[in-house]
Design goal:
The complex is a heterodimer. Helix content of chain A is 36%, strand content 24%. Chain A has 21 helices and 20 strands. Chain A has a six-stranded mixed beta sheet, with helices on both faces. In chain A, strands 16-17-18-13-19-20 form a six-stranded mixed beta sheet, with helices on both faces. In chain A, strands 2-1-4-5 form a four-stranded antiparallel beta sheet, with helices on one face. In chain A, helix 18 links the parallel strand 17 and strand 18. Chain A starts with a helix and ends with a helix. Chain B has a single domain, classed as MetI-like fold (Orthogonal Bundle). Classes of the chains: A alpha/beta, B mainly alpha. Chains A and B meet through helix 14, strand 16, helix 15 and helix 17 of A and helix 8 and helix 9 of B.
Chain lengths: 557, 280
């Protein structure tokens, strides 16, 4: 959208606010029939989207739900004319927008429609805005190319009004800010203001809240719903999260590998899903039912953390003081053997830092770690070899946490070998573990790129288990995975925890996951633990206002 | 994996042509004594004989009556030898320094990088001229001089690659497993940094050949080896009477360097998995 703003679309002059056409009656704003989109040769399937049909009437929200690779974003890009032609293009069907088939429209016509009649919001608010341009200028650009005859004063007025519309505080000041001064949620609000500037009749939102915290997500969803009601536009909302669907959708289309498997009224689909795939997706959502805290407090403590501190300093020079962020502020807690502690909080709360301080990957500034009665050095490089193997970590991104140039078998065996385990024994253990995490034994000779995200996370778990650890720190281990895969990986975690008598520190932003996995929960905010207790107690009867806010914001249905 | 590489490499037509030229030059260098009828230093005919004027001397003779074609064929040996050996030496030094600096960071990085900057602060060619002049022109001193002026960019590249790869999660997992620093450097980080190093290496061979030619042109070549740069230098005085003496070795240098650059670009395409049209 930004690109075509700078190109200067043909003007629809003298008509700054498009008059709503007469077709905005009961007829749908967008009518898609048998839309097919092809993929380039050599892709995993010939069609990204296979004969998909749906209608969106004015004032209604249609959610397209599916897992990654289901082709849901392709639909949005096809409607916007943003497919990377000629390799990926719409090969069949019609997309009738206000009586006009978008598939037949040429680039000039599409450019006039985009921004003016159809607008789009993207997933990543961090990269959707130009970082070296003030917010006001970026918004005004839309008016500059679609309504060049509008006087400058009115344009500025409209920009400020649009920012006020999306609930940004002090819009007069915000127009002069650069995007980096704004938070993720604020940036997404600016993107929405940008999309709404010319009052489009159709708004397409491609996972607009996926990159945001739960509390911010809840606010943005409320805002979009509110704007939609006020302006009466049609909304095509693409998401993978059934919680979001429950909150915003009027109608739902469920997609699996390019085809629609189920569609209908949102309530009906969510309450009584007909297709087995939909049922599987809905069942896979963590229910957020707090598990019973196992085995009381008589077990010996495995890890004691006393006064853990970590402060990040950045910038600063001779004349200006450095910016400091307290990622962990005098944290103390005890983890007993076989217990799982959940650390929950939003991004920037310091929960990942705590995890890395425990493993020693980021040395803490001050504090004390006592592991099985022995002091544990702050820096992993200074820990004794035997101690190093006992604390292992499972990382968030299964794509980044495996070495692309190392075969899976040697990646898992490398750890035990470094600990001095004999070669045969290390490889025997590797094959056993791969079987345990549900992979075939021929996986040892294959490379990470041959595996899916869920399988890679299984490999990462096997790699951690190969060290025979007593404590595993899992940093958002399922947040990069699709919901059905997520359920399987969580099950695997539960199983190995039981079988190996592991203690775990489970870091997550998702309260439903935490409820399912953890015995105790610590809620973190700005480097401090605001609430800590048994899972059922924390979630059932939250004492701190922030915990209550988090629980209220979590999507549910 | 390998077939993907070959497919991406082949898609770059220039690179395939470059590879072909390099193969020809390589064959010339390997089979020089068989292909060249004459010794490059022997005076075989009268001086300034034009190309094709005499059977068997299809590129003519130079100011001393030596066979230009024989010189060209033997010159390929010197160019390839010096290009490869000097690059290998420079890569070895550059990778070692860059890997240590990038992996360890802190004061190790500061010391090694200031040391590198010491070399970068001196104009490369002038430095090479001085080194060769001091140590007497010979194959060894030329190789050493070229390697000494070309390793700093390698060190910088490897350092930056290591600095970013060191933060990757698979390296952190290896740290947690208690793997030694050497093991992490060799099995985790270096294999992932190979692509840019290979590309840079292929371009460095080209630069090394140019440097050697320039040194020989100035009369700082190995006096016992016929090289392209020496031939151009020797032809300089008779350029207007006998163009062929300078033009053929000059063309050989240009073609070889061009071919190396094309192959370097092809390698860069071939090793770039993202060109496949899918990330990850």
């Amino acid at each position: 959208m930004k690109a075509d703003n700078t190109l200067g679309a043909p003007s629809v002059s003298g008509n700054p606010v498009p008059v709503l056409g007469p077709e905005r009656g009961p007829a749908p704003v967008l009518q898609v029939r048998d839309l097919s989109v092809c993929l380039p040769a050599g892709a995993d399937r010939p069609l990204a989207v296979n004969a998909v049909s749906f209608d969106i009437p004015a004032g209604q929200t249609l959610c397209v739900v599916g897992e990654s690779g289901s082709g849901k974003s392709m639909i949005a890009n096809a409607v916007m004319g943003l497919l990377p032609v000629p390799h990926v293009r719409a090969t069949g069907g019609t997309m009738v927008f206000e009586g006009e088939d978008l598939r037949l429209a040429n680039e000039t016509r599409l450019r006039a429609l985009r921004g003016q009649r159809i607008a789009m919001i993207f997933q990543e608010p961090m990269t959707s805005l130009n970082p070296v341009m003030r917010v006001g200028e970026q918004l005004q650009e839309v008016l500059d190319c679609h309504c060049p005859d509008m006087p400058g004063a009115i344009k500025r007025q409209k920009v400020i009004e649009s920012l006020r519309d999306v609930g940004l505080p002090e819009p007069e000041q915000t127009v002069h800010s650069y995007p980096f001064r704004l938070s993720g949620g604020q940036r997404q609000r600016v993107m929405i203001a940008c999309a709404m500037l010319l009052e489009p009749t159709l708004l397409i939102a491609d996972e607009p809240t996926t990159a945001l915290d739960v509390t911010t997500q809840a606010q943005i969803l409320t805002l979009m719903k509110d704007l939609q009601r006020r302006k009466g536009m049609a909304l095509l909302f693409i998401t993978h999260d059934f919680g979001v669907v429950a909150q915003i959708a009027d109608r739902v289309v469920v997609m699996q590998t390019g085809s629609v498997v189920e569609s209908g009224d949102a309530q009906t689909v969510l309450r009584s899903p007909q297709h087995p795939y939909t049922r599987k997706l809905i069942e896979a959502i963590p229910q957020g039912v707090a598990r019973a805290t196992a085995g009381a407090d008589q077990r010996p403590p495995l890890l004691e953390v006393r006064g853990l501190n970590k402060t990040y300093r950045s910038g600063g020079g001779w004349f200006k003081p450095a910016r400091t962020v307290h990622a962990a502020n005098a944290l103390s807690f005890t983890l007993r053997e076989g217990e799982t502690l959940g650390i929950v909080g939003e991004s920037g709360s310091g929960k990942s830092t705590v995890g890395r301080c425990l493993t020693g990957l980021i040395p803490m500034d001050s504090g004390e770690l006592v592991f099985a009665g022995q002091p544990l050095a702050a820096d992993v490089r200074h820990r004794r070899l035997a101690q190093r193997g006992q604390v292992q970590m499972v990382f968030q991104d299964p794509y980044a946490s495996l070495n692309p140039r190392q075969s899976v078998g040697s990646a898992i065996a490398a750890g035990p070998l470094a600990q001095g385990v004999p070669r045969d024994e290390a490889w025997r253990r590797t094959r056993e573990l791969l079987q345990l995490v549900g992979l075939k034994h021929d996986a040892t000779d294959r490379y990470p790129h041959e595996f899916s995200g869920g399988q890679r996370q299984r490999i990462a778990i096997a790699r951690a288990l190969a060290m025979r650890p007593r404590l595993i720190v899992a940093d958002e281990p399922v947040s990069a995975l699709d919901v059905s895969v997520q359920a399987q990986v969580l099950e695997l975690f539960e199983q190995v925890r039981r079988d190996f008598q592991l203690s775990m520190v489970f870091i997550t932003h998702d309260l439903r996951v935490a409820a399912q996995m953890c015995d105790h929960i610590a809620v973190m905010r700005r480097g401090e633990v605001v609430e800590h207790g048994e899972t059922a107690a924390v979630l059932g009867d939250p004492q701190h206002a922030y915990t209550r806010e988090l629980i209220a914001a979590a999507p549910r249905f | 994996m390998n077939s993907d590489f070959a497919r991406r490499f082949r898609r770059n037509t220039g690179a395939v042509i470059g590879l072909f030229v390099l193969l020809v030059v390589g064959l010339l260098a390997l089979l020089a004594p068989l292909l060249a009828g004459n010794d490059p230093w022997d005076m075989v005919q009268q001086p300034f004989l034009a190309p094709m004027a005499e059977p068997g001397l299809w590129l003519g003779t130079d100011a001393l009556g030596r066979d230009v074609a024989a010189g060209l064929i033997h010159g390929a040996r010197v160019s390839i030898l010096i290009g490869l050996v000097a690059t290998a030496a420079a890569l070895l030094a550059g990778i070692t320094v860059g890997a240590l600096a990038g992996y360890h960071g802190g004061w190790v990085d500061v010391v090694l990088m200031r040391f590198t900057e010491l070399f970068q602060a001196i104009p490369g060619f002038a430095f090479a001229v001085v080194l060769v002049a001091i140590f007497q022109p010979s194959v060894e001193s030329i190789v050493a001089a070229i390697a000494l002026v070309s390793w700093p960019p390698v060190a910088r590249l490897v350092r930056s690659e290591f600095m970013s790869l060191r933060q990757r999660e698979f390296v952190q997992a290896a740290l947690l497993a208690g793997q030694t620093h050497w093991r992490i450097i060799f099995t985790q980080i270096l294999p992932n940094a190979v692509s840019p190093i290979v590309v840079m290496g292929s371009l460095m061979v080209a630069t090394a050949i140019l440097l050697e030619s320039a040194l020989s042109f100035l009369g700082l070549g190995d006096p016992n080896m016929m090289s392209w740069g020496y031939m151009v230098g020797a032809a300089r005085t008779a350029l207007r009477q006998a163009w062929w003496i300078a033009v053929f070795p000059g063309l050989a240098i240009a073609l070889t360097v061009l071919a190396l650059n094309l192959v370097g670009e092809g390698l860069s395409d071939g090793l770039n998995t993202r060109l496949q049209g899918r990330t990850r």
